[in-house]
Predict the structure.
Amino acid sequence: MQKTILTCAITGNLTTREQHPRLPVTPREIANSAVAAAKAGASIVHLHARDPQTGKGSMQLEYYKDIVDQIRNEDPNVIINLTTGEGGRFVPGSIEPREPESGTTLVRPEIRVSHVETLKPEICTLDFNTMWSGNAVVINSPQNIKIMADRIYSNGVKPEIEIFDSSDLHMLKHFIELGIIKTPVMVQMVLGVRYGAVANPQTMAYLVSQLPDDCLWAGFGIGRMEFPMVAQAWLLGGHIRVGMEDNLYISKGKLTSGNAELVTKARVIVEHLGGQIATPDDARQMLAL
């Protein structure tokens, strides 16, 4: 039985302080929470940056650099995974759909990976989804995914392929055939996003059955399905993810004290099932970093 890689998604870009007063927002808060998650058992920390003044997701290199530098100074062993998801949202105009409204962040693909090219984390995400998210359309066109993938690989970074539905998985397999995505491939299944794949055992089992060869995969659930999907992913032989990006509650009606508590609960679930959490070095070996 292989060890289980545990990723902690620290803050994301959609959850808010109104939903949880202790959500990490500033670079110092995000770095502190990431280090605490690593001490609790996370092998990988998945990072978004936020504007400290507004709390909204940010693409500013200075914020990413501040977060990464602090984590590397305090825990040089944990694996850093930076998002490239920022910059993909388009809100159609209510009168003229071609005109973007407030909330649109859509930018060229080169901009979305510029912080990865500068900071060179071991891993970064690469989203394959085009779908509705709230009042916005998340757009990841095949041509833009290719541009981002080429730049990620050229900087020695491993992309974690994010799939939100079966169509994303079909595109991934085609990209592998074309040689755009290299094997062994790292796949993260995002379950429970509205209008995406449902977070239940049947959906996860189907997606696992369709994965390409030479693939290491993880899966997670949004909101109240976070911990049920921890158990389901482990039972199917996959790896796991938790964190305040995906869920703010430790149990029904009770807000979590922070990312470390979510990691601890996920680790205990795996251990009670008979598994063992991978160290960062274990994860590096499994992921061929």
